[in-house]
UniProtKB/TrEMBL annotation:
Protein source organism: Nocardioides daphniae
SUPFAM superfamilies given in the database record: Putative DNA-binding domain
Molecular function in Gene Ontology: DNA binding
Keyword DNA-binding: yes
Name this polypeptide is given: DNA-binding protein
Amino acid sequence: MTQHRNLPTYLSIEEAATVMSVSTKTIRRRISDGTIPAYHCGNRPIRIKLDDLEAALERIPAVNW
């Protein structure tokens, strides 16, 4: 019996921007300021874990108008 572990999903900067509905420039700024962790191995392109991308979201508190 083979056990499969849940592997993280990695996205390119372009894919992350599409998922978040923002520009690639915004994703790069968030990587630069440390809000979104990013990874690369050697000369490979930058990748972002989907879990890290989701964790970077901040909930806006409800306001009673």
